[in-house]
Amino acid sequence: MKMVTAIIKPFKLDDVREALSEIGVSGITATEVKGFGRQKGHTELYRGAEYTVDFLPKVKLEIAVSADQVDGVVEAITKTAKSDDDGKIGDGKIFVSSLEQVVRIRTGETGSVAL
Question: What range does the domain containing 80 cover?
Answer without folding.
Answer: 2-114
